[in-house]
Amino acid sequence: MTPSIKLYGYATSPYVRKTGAFLYYKKLPFTHVPVNPFATEDTLGKFGGTQVPVLEIDDEWRRESSDHALWLDEKFPERPLCPAEHREKILEIDDWVSHSFLMLNFRGALDEDDSLQRRFRFWRLAAIVSAHTPLPEEVRNQWPELVQNAPFIHAMKQHMNMHESTRDMQTRVMAELIGHIGEGPYIGGFAQPTMLDLAIVPQLLFGFFTGLEEKLAVFQAPSLKDWIIRVAGYLPENPVLAHNMAMVRTLKDAL
Ligand SMILES: N[C@@H](CCC(=O)N[C@@H](CS)C(=O)NCC(=O)O)C(=O)O
Q: Burial code of 178-209, b = ≥16 C-beta within 10 A, e = fewer?
């Protein structure tokens, strides 16, 4: 029997995009259930709590995106996200993905910066959420403040060195990423993509695909460009779970 797989969450969450990429890579058909971050009860009520992503397979469900990779491998061993023979190394690098790389998505939100440029960025993020779950206009207007004050983002400070500027953090983490890819072809030197590549690539594409960024800046580093193209080959044209209405570009526009 075909399993019923549902992924609950909003496209602006890197963790939701990460679990989405796991499902795409494993070629598992699933339903994306968009969650309104200000009315989570509507969709997440039966799970309790507000954190996304939630992955539901038939009558079981789990939180925590990295656990999703292991759970999916247990249930659907084909195209492993974390092959048993490399598990230790993968989980060690995954710690870096969770505590360094994914923190990049939130670091900028914590900056004291009231520039119009920043407001436009956050308004566009609100529009991306709203494309799936319409938000009241006052919520969309207040999005820059709402995100800046979100308790779960403040809790992430424990994984950040707040004395390091956002720009320095970006430069450092991207250099670390290049180090982890090394000679490739995939992160950790593995011959096939793993949960590590799939956790990262959707994040690097999201801003460009949804119009937050004009250029796919990471393409300036040839080793990153080749690696992204390799990983994206396993993913659909829109791998970021944004509503098609919010998609303004695809990878072809960067080539
Ligand atoms: N460690 C979790 C982190 C998930 C997470 O922080 N999700 C955020 C969205 S980006 C969230 O749901 N925040 C609202 C909340 O926690 O109530 C994972 O990997 O799934």
A: eebbeebbbbbebeebbbbbbbbbbbbbbbbb
Q: Is residue 68 part of a domain?
A: yes
Q: What is the pLDDT of residues 122-145, one digit of tens each?
A: 999 999 999 999 999 999 999 999
CA of 39 to the centre of ligand 1 (A): 15
Shortest-distance atom of ligand 1 to CA 156: 6
Q: Which of 38, 44, 152, 160 to mutate to test the pocket of ligand 1 (most atoms within 8 A of CB)?
A: 152
15 belongs to a structural domain: yes
Range of 78's domain?
5-110+147-254
**7 Cα–ligand 1 center, Å:** 13
Enter the DSSP assignment of 216: -
**12, two tokens:** 């602006």
Write out pLDDT tens, residues 56-80.
999 999 999 999 999 999 999 999 9
Q: pTM for the full model?
A: 0.98
55 CB less than 6 Å from ligand 1?
no
Is 82 a member of any domain? yes
CATH code, domain carrying 100:
3.40.30.10
